[in-house]
Amino acid sequence: MNEMIKNLFDFRLWLTALVLTSWSSYAENTINRPLFELTPKSVEYLGGFRLPLTTKGVSRIAYSQGVIALRPSKNSFFMVGHAQHQAIAEFEIPEINTTKKIGEWPFAIFKQPFSTLFPCASSSNPQKINRVTGMSEIEGQLVVNGMEYYDADANVRDTTLIVREPDDLEESEIDGFFQLQGAAHAAGWISKIPQTWQKDLDSEYLVGNASTLPINSRLSIGPSAFTAHFWGVLNSEDKSGLILTTDLMDFSLKHPIVEDQYNESLKNNLWTELSSAYYGFIIPRTSSYLVIGKSGGHNSGIGYKITQDEGKGRKCGGPCSLKAGDSYNYFWLFDVDDFLSVKTGKKQPYQIRPYQYGFFDKSNTNPYIIGADYNIEKKLLYVVFANEDKFQSEYEAAPVIRVYKIHTN
Q1: What one-character DSSP code corresponds to residue 208?
Q2: Which run of H or of E encompasses 111?
């Protein structure tokens, strides 16, 4: 009898715990998803570290376009090297330094040297993909998005490679090219969807892209967001094929996020011809999709192949702000509930607008953002800034990485 009572008591405890867990999960999914507001307190700058200019393997970090992929379980990250080589290395994350004196920051240490990607694709490289545009380690495999730098005909459809053994970059099989259904509009960053949004969005990962390379006719004229279904290609022996995507937010020349791309009205402070987005992710425990990148021309306007500062400055090779100093790092915040409205047909993907946008981290006088990745467990955002470390060589500069804590409570 005593044993029966004990078992009944244990069962009631288990049932109570199950109900509480289920309610907690329900509440998390339905209630606790407020909009995030970006402020100096909500995005706290923690410090940074440097990247060595040493040549390791087939490349070095100079002239990197900044694409990174964190490996939280190994305290390391992958990063693309010199733009000419398009090779990837792995670095160990050092202790970050809080000083703003970059020369005093610690260096990331090589764990794997730079290894080439595109020439090693299993199906070769028929569409001449030559720029890494996004990366993420998924289920123990490294998914790499890429584009042709100057696709004048806007007809390239190959987008994605899979490095099957990322612990051995040099010897791993590299399958692809695969084709994201969203093509160049989707072939940029890859970010994990927080668990509380995965059921509603019917996916574990988002992909996006916007205006980081030439030829506007193939690009989203504003930050995009697509769900991507990588499971099929990660868990098969296929060497190529279609990766299904679902359009949640997307723009085009016909439907740009803002019509006045050259800011002739001097009233456009959202997105211009000089805007680029390099990374986007849903902030856990919020209904917010944060995108970071750069922008310009919001104050002075934009010209094409002009001489800046009323003919007294530099001659531009393409679009540039009328005043030389009118460029900055920028952010855009979107409501994920709007993505659900698109998913259910209540809105078109080009009808979404950000609820907050503006300058990103005005406390640091630093060059442009060129890449980022988010550690979803530790709420740490790692942001790559271009060519800021000029202490290692008089001939080349290296990018640096700053780390920010995202506070949602």
Answers
A1: E
A2: strand 109-116
Domains of the chain: 43-406 (2.115.10.20)
- Give the integer Cα–Cα distance in Å for 288 and 336: 6
Give per-residue pLDDT as tens, 217-235.
Answer: 999 999 999 999 998 899 8
How would you class 19 by CB atoms within 10 Å of its CB: exposed for 0-12, middle for 13-18, buried for 19 or more?
A: exposed
Residue 298 pLDDT exceeds 80: yes
pLDDT average, residue stretch 385-405:
95
pLDDT in tens, 42-96: 999 999 999 999 999 999 999 999 999 999 999 999 999 999 999 999 999 999 9
Q: Are the CB atoms for 103 and 111 separated by under 8 Å?
A: no
As a whole number of angstroms, the distance between CA 166 and CA 237 comes to 17
Amino acid identity, residue 215?
Answer: I
249, 259, 251, 263: which is closest to 217 by C-alpha?
251
Q: Which among 208, 211, 242 is positioned nearest to 134, based on CA atoms?
A: 208
